[in-house]
# Entry
Amino acid sequence: MNAGEIAMRVAALDDGAADEVTKALEAGLDPVELLRAGVIRGLEQIGEKFEAGEYFLPELMMGGELAEKCIALIDPHLPEDAGSSEGVVVIGAVNGDIHDIGYGLVAKQLQLAGFEVHKVGVNVPAMTFIDKAQEVNADIIGLSAFLTTTIPNCTEVVEYIRDMGLKDTFKVIIGGAETSQEKADQMGAAGWAPNAVEAVTLCRHLMGHRE
Amino acid sequence: MIPIMEFQERSLKGPVMKGTQFDLAFAKKVRELVGTYEIKYNPDELIVDDKTADAVFQAGVELLADVGLYHLDTQRVIRFSEEEIREVAREYRENPPRQVFGQGEQEITVEYRACDDKRPPILAGGAPGSIAEEWFAPYVQSFMQEETNKAMGIAGGITAVGGVEPKAGTLSEVHCGLWECRTLLEVLERVGRPGLHLGLLCTVSTVGGTMACVGPGLRGPHNTQIGIHIVPEQKLDWTRLLLAQFCEARGITPWTSCMSMVGALCRDGAEAAIGLVANLLGQLSYGHGTMSSLFSTHLDGRWADAETQWAFSGAARASERNIRVPIAGVCGGMEQVWRTEAAMYQAAAMAVSNTASGFCYAWIAGHSGLETRLVGETLKAVSGMERGKANDLLKAILEVTEEKVKETTGPREFPDAYDLKTVEPKPALVADYDRVKESLAKLGLPFA
# Structure
């Protein structure tokens, strides 16, 4: 077994990936290599298959669960700085909005891209986003709004962050059917993405990564 | 019928489940069902046949019986037995609802319509989208003044009134909602149609906001529908149940509206069709609605293409043959091309597909009054058309549509489409309308 085989099994959503990880660790393979060239590469391949229309949302969810199992096995063997993520994102649908597929998809794509993602659910009050972001030391807060009447609740989160002096701590991004770059600019959000793939690009950009 | 109060118990006592577990259960079951019933999206047969329609119905019943509805607030699953679901369908099938809207000369009756019915569907072209205060009144007037338009299926959301945005759950939501109600009634008076049905209440979205906009001199049972719909896929919360209860208590027809997305939990049009039927039966079980909208989009927001129309046809025909609740649908192009030739072709394609699939109520019909006129002409022309002929016509329109969408660089804003003072379409929009109508006629649409 090797990292490439683990990547292949993760990408194929094969439950045997976890067994392969255990065997690889027992055989003394480098855990950092297993994480990066194995599990994370497998997740990237899942993302690629999704973009190609070969995989759908359930595959992203299954892939995420499988990867979590594998990472839990590798984690105790990692040196302290090996598991660093692309960034930490708190994400949910704002107060008054119960649409969960869009933000759920963005959350999953971000996870697959290596971000640490904390979902706070739907119909979420402004302060809940901020509390969670402070609790997990988030870099980015992602807000989803699908209705004309809930977009002002995105503005509310941005204003709370500004008024609490946290503007330099958290970057806020927005998305959803009725949102736009123009609306993001008007409310002072750090960015807007029209879909999950571009949300990953946006978050990477905000984290200072080059594409 | 299952009494609404039964859903109190089921919402609080059903099995606890995380949302992601529910999503996976839904996706796995719908995948299994397309295999069991051999339901396949067929781009060559966009108006679904009887056998496929019945299979979609059976699969929809099984899907709802297997996964139930997910309550987002309690994080519990509302369960149904298969017998209960079949009983809901049977009650509707044996006594198809008839629903009267509007008053006086503007009274309309929405009733079950079969796919080959010669009676055209009701044209209820509303004013969809986000609307700026400056052009709200002329925009809605453009629909209201069209004589063939029999109702406003919806009046879109106002973006702000006097600079105040409608913020859900706050005073501004009600402020903007009331402004919208009053403006709509003023415009109805202006065009001499005070009794016109105003359709789905849109600007307000919360329970409190909705209740505040229903009352004497505003909205009432004769001119209003209130959304109680499930969000994709198979999810609701207390607000939907509370509004269903409010509708029942006040004699208001609930807006039952089913949406299923291609490319999210459903992989394709076949799975989305099954999702729509499960969604429909779930909503009818608690909302007891007398009509229902069906709509499918791709995950990236595209609609009006062959696959999403196949999903509509599968679900609408499943309902037409097995539930017989009056079906409503959208005949309007995508936002990226609104009020252009491309959007007119998209609207016409949807009108052909929906009419030949048994829908009875076009609640969105283009994005201006003139486009609504074209949709109405299309509904009339295609009604009673034989399925095979409608299918060939639809495919021909979709082929042209694809090319037009590629050529189109962006939407035409309403103020660029209509003169805001005279509320007459500008020459460029009229020229597009004339060109599209002529082209549709050449493709085989038998306009009167």
